[in-house]
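Retro notes, item 3 of 5
We never archived the inputs for the fe (ii) ion complex last cycle. Fixing that now. Sequence and ligand:
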Amino acid sequence: MEIRELLKKDHDHVKELLEKLSSGKLREDALKTTFDELKIAVTSHSKAEEKIVYGKLKKEEDEETQEAGIEGEIEHGLVDQLLQIMTRSRSKGSTRWEAYLKVIKDLLEHHIKEEESTVFTQLGEHFDAAALQKMGEEMEQEKSKMMKAAA
Ligand SMILES: [Fe+2]
Ligand SMILES: [Fe+2]
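Structure as it came back at the time:
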């Protein structure tokens, strides 16, 4: 699968999980399971994306592309920190936890939107069809490694 198609699929999955978590319809057990699912989906995606996508963008000549790569990594770092705090919280579903959920949802939605506009455009500008296909395959391999490590 072409890298952008693969990223989009993952992003849609993450957005779906965020909607589910913030629907207010989940009880504590389901909240915990869905949150764990989100954590694995986000972490495996982000780590693979950093290696396969951002790693390459940062090596490009123009500053704008490098900056997009760095900005993305910073946002990944923030998401990671929030996920850790939310994991440590004993009362999933508490008012404070729900507030964290709102913040991480906004951040992830913003992040995804930027990737699907800026980063997708840059990928199209710097890489040909064969290279994008190859990146997709590398991303898939990398992700399954992460999933195995997380399991
Ligand atoms: Fe992404
Ligand atoms: Fe990302």
